[in-house]
Amino acid sequence: MDSLDPLGGAEFAPKQTYLNTSACALLPRRTIEAITLLAEETAAGRPDGAGSFDIVDEARAAFARLAAVGPDRVAVGSSVSVHVGMIAQSMPAGAEILFPEGDFSSVITPFTVRGDLKTRFVPLERLAESVRPETALVAFSCVQSADGRTADLAAIRAAAAAHGARTLLDATQSAGWLPLRAGDWDYTVSGGYKYLLCPRGASFLTVTEEAQDSLVPIHAGWVTGEELWANSYGPVRELARSARRFDEPAAFLSYHGAARSLALLEEIGIERIEAHNKALGARFRDGLTALGHAPVPDVSGIVAVPGLGDRQAALREAGVLTSARAGNLRVSFHLYNGAADADRALDVIAG
């Protein structure tokens, strides 16, 4: 198989040229089947209720393998902003939080609404050099939503370590096509409905054992107990000793689907998907340059073209789905795309 051929096989059947995974992924066929089966079982009176905690733990374990950590370091939830909100509420008053300018709102707003934290914003390329002794937390996205730029992970990690700052990495635009080593960061958050191919309502938080000690489980409920079925009434007697203490109650339909989606990513392999997505991104960037456009430079499967955001509507009319973000035309490739998709988009842009 050519490296620019789609990798998903019969799992996907898009009816248009879909280049918008940075907004929302296509669901694999196996995922749709799992969601449909659970919905039908629940409608018929499923013996064990509306879903399976064992399948939730399958999804947790699959994400842990993709993130190169143990499943005891993974909490499940519903969205990035809820995970980040827990981290924000755990910061001491007056703590300095450092962000890149223009990062995604869900990484920033849970901190700014506190009102008693010091928030500082710098250009992404200066993030590492801007960490200082008073910085308590560096919060940033691995890949920027607006334009696909990739952060200098090694430099940021080294700077945070040198100044004793904790780190929060949002992997929503990278997990599923870039290798993730979650153990390198105090916290990582990943929305599942983009490159992880999961239904909306599935998201993942990783917490190092050291960082767990200062994180307040503000969403704690009966599912966060060490003994799952022993805490239905009254206060939870003992919170889970793992990161499961930070779980939200799982949306079973989402997680029954997520377990199947994550299994597909494991079967194909993230390194293979990375090479595929980057090759398509490079093909598209080269084509744009030949047409006289100047895409944001990066080695990424997400391509942004400043000043072309107004072309999104014309592309949609031609059956090519993309995004317009911060004035950029944003085109995002994933495993179900091939060279023909990149070329189709270029043909429409060339007009």
Describe this structure in words.
- The chain is of the alpha/beta class and 351 residues long.
- The protein contains 10 helices and 12 strands.
- The model has no long low-confidence stretch (mean pLDDT 96).
- It is globular.
- Helix 1 (29-44) runs antiparallel to helix 7 (252-268) and helix 2 (53-67) runs parallel beside helix 7 (252-268).
- The protein has a 7-stranded mixed beta sheet with strand order 2-8-7-6-5-3-4, sandwiched between helices. Strands 9-12-11 form a 3-stranded antiparallel beta sheet. A two-stranded parallel sheet has the order 1-10.
- Helix 4 links the parallel strand 3 (96-100) and strand 4.
What oligomeric state best describes the polypeptide chains here? Answer: single chain
Q: Give the terminus-to-terminus CA distance.
A: 31 Å
- Integer-rounded radius of gyration: 21 Å
What is the makeup of the main sheet?
Answer: 7 strands, mixed
How many DSSP H or I helices? Answer: 10
Descriptors for this entry?
351 residues, alpha/beta, 10 helices, 34% helix, 15% strand
SSE arrangement:
Blueprint: E1 17-18, H1 29-44, H2 53-67, E2 74-77, H3 80-89, E3 96-100, H4 105-112, E4 118-122, E5 135-141, H5 153-163, E6 166-170, E7 187-191, E8 203-207, H6 209-212, H7 252-268, H8 270-290, E9 302-306, H9 312-317, E10 320-321, E11 323-325, E12 328-332, H10 339-350
Parallel strand pairs: 1-10, 3-4, 3-5, 5-6, 6-7
Antiparallel strand pairs: 2-8, 7-8, 9-12, 11-12
Helix pairs in contact: 1-7, 2-7, 3-4, 8-10
